[in-house]
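Notes from the pairing session

We agreed to fold both candidates in a single pass and log them together. This is the raw record for the first candidate, unedited. Please don't reformat it; downstream parsing expects exactly this layout.

Candidate A
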Amino acid sequence: MMKKTLLMMMMTPLLGVSQAIITSWQMNANGQKASYWSPSGNPPTTTYSYVPTTDSASVLKVCYRTDSVWIYSHGMVFNMGKYSNPGACSSKVYIYRFPRTPTVPTTKTISSKMGAIGCLVNGIPMYGLGDSKSWTGSTNSNMGGQGIWNVEVYKGEGVSLDTALSAHPQQQGAYHSHANPRRLYQNTPTTQHSPIVGYAFDGYPVYGPYGYSTPTNSASTVTRMKSGYSLRSITTRTALPYGVPASQTGPPVNSTYPIGTYCEDYEWSASNGGDLDKYNGRTCVTPEYPGGTYAYFATIDASGTPQFPYYIGIEYYGKPDASCAGSGTSTGLKFPASGTICNLPTNLDEKVKEFAVKVYPNPSNGQFTITTEENLGLFSKAEVVNMVGQKIYSIDITSEKTIIDLPSGTSKGIYFVRILGKQSEVYTTDKIIIK
């Protein structure tokens, strides 16, 4: 019976994945603009100035089809936290893709230590567990380096992270989170399961720190999810975790480079009594996945301090989308030209009006109008597809108003009006009822 139960748990995540990964994103509300706090001076005497921007906040577009979900954001939110490193937050272009049906490979992919590993539900990138520095034996410093002994991010940058999302901007202004995103779960009592705070690029959800004490029982008490990682008991840095020989000896273990300075100073072990595996997750039921899923958890200690490895472990549990994993401020991805449905925020601001079109009347008898207003130059074609994705009608957009007249005999039901851009990319999809 136990084997059957476990098998059911491994199969049923696919049922929930199809929707939560589409509906969990925080969409831009009422054209809300991003804002941040600009620091001046050094801790502990840092002062801040509130800076409103004209850039759009949160997630601006979510598109999906049977195999993938895409999200688009500028990497900005309203009232970003008070970080203390120099630099100002600036708008970027993020298009990330996630598999709707995650796969679990035998050979795992190492998670990026410096680039993106996923995205928070508010459109802010999640970065890995290292900072940009690693040990260089020839100069006896952490500048540059060979990526063998990597400075652990909270040790190296924790003091500069804000308390909202454990985030800060890098030199080019890209605001990103390294650890505990408090703002995304702080209104949920610790007696309730934490909400989804993001998705890793392998398609699995990342939750806040609290989950069910019994992984398969949603009626069990809620407890803080404890990491299975601990500091290694070493006096020299000659070997990597799990007995892997190091191709370069690290710095001595001393007061200058104490244990915990580097990612490689940590090691996962079942004997640590953690709730999570070495990927920083587990197979469990959650409010969004009552049938079960694999899920990562943002780990903290009893005092609320972020706990290594923060979001995901040294490796992904599933297979990440190679176009996104480790990416910087732009992935180069585009929204697909066909088979895609897109969700858009309401009351879009000027920055996002490129996605706004009107389709009326709805319901329709088969003849209706598409209005593109001042955005005419962005669009090339309108298509009507049925519920199974088959195109039944297509017309070029040559004016601000395009009349659609479906062939006589078109069956009654629900259809989708898809607006394509100049490169055949899908800008938006609206639902229409033919009566």
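Candidate B (folded immediately after A)
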Amino acid sequence: MTTTHDTIPFHEAIAAFDPVLGLETHVELGTASKMFCSCPTAFGADANTQVCPVCLGLPGSMPVVNRTAVESTIRMGLALNCQTAEWCRFARKNYFYPDMPKDYQVSQYDEPLCFNGWLDVTVETEDGPRDFRVEIERVHMEEDTGKLTHAGGATGRIHGADYSLVDYNRAGIPLIEIVTKPIAGAGALAPLVARAYVTQLRDLMRALGVSDVRMEEGSLRCDVNVSLARPGEPWGTRSETKNVNSLRSVERAVHSEIERQAAVLLSGGRVIQETRHFHEDTGRSTSGRSKEQAEDYRYFPEPDLVPVAPSREWVEELRGTLPEPPSVKRARLRAEWGISDHDFQTIVNAGALALVEDTVAAGVDQASARKWWTGELTRIANDRGVELESLGVTPAQILRVEELVATGALNDKLARQVFDGIIAGEGGVDEVVAARGLAVVSDDSALLAAIDAALEEQPDVAEKIRGGKVQAAGAIVGSVMKATRGQADAAKVRALLLERLGVQE
């Protein structure tokens, strides 16, 4: 039976069904070389220039495991409270697709390096913060695939494209997959829990120093699994939305898939187990292909690689390199900054915790750092549908803006224009100020000339001020601000105006 509606309102879906989530997060490690060969891993190189017989799967080539990648994976597992296997193997995951030159991917199947962990996350609700424990099924190593570009079509997808190009530079880069156990019981908070989990996971990976976790460059990607069930009934069939590449999109993908599946089920239809493609422009997903089962990949042990058997001494040595646990760090920062739970959670929800921390470390007071990252910059990022990091604004630039504001060379309105210029690629703070002519007009003679012009245009306002209605000064101040394109200090204009008219507050 076909559905009568593509989606139904979220609140109706949640009233009828309980959502169950599963998140598979892929983290590209920041190693200098690939997982099984010495090819470099730098992002942005010319296509197919960072390849060799090993990562191209040419006959006779033999892989060797990257020790740093194994270390990073163990540290990730320890930070996620996982157990570390004493012995595990790689496997061949067979599938035929042009982004994997060997026609198989070296991965780990039934013997992951790390398993049975957890990560606690917090989401803001109407009743205050609420904690969720997300249990981790496994953390395993594999190699990344190449990158396909579908050209000539309207959507960038393979359907409708005239031809496809493949770049194997990414093939073989160390890729760690972190798989959660089913996340149930979140109800209407499910989209927020998913976003909070990926946000905290990203911050943790950055703190560990194992990856730059730049979602816009693909070094952190998330596959979002969603299924629905009526209360008290077994979990339903799941769908998997592939390669969601922003925190905002993780939340939207869960939200829209709950609405879609609920519409299918309430109209008498059946949810199909499949992969789906998320579309940033619409916030919806479209069908991809039927989802394979494990047996479809015909896993078998990789014969060209020896097992990985980390000693207990090595694991404990790596445990000693772990950064401060996320919960401890957040409690410390909240106390150091002296802000409320609500204000701190606002920073976390915006995905700005690391940015605010780095900005404070650069010398900006926490109130100003918080103001810019969770205010104007978050607004711009949301309008553009991107993450804060991808705006290109640095802590050092915020420090420079604050220095200019403190000296009176800029006001907040002009500072916002400075950030617009930085994001537009017009240069650093001082370059944007100079190019756009954004310095505050502080010359008394220029301000008095603007005040006189405004008084001449509004003589009735001048009489009101002289008559004791000092609040009417706002009209003149507004005219001067308009005449100076917002580049005057409003408080100074007001003081000069009252002095000009011989009026005291």
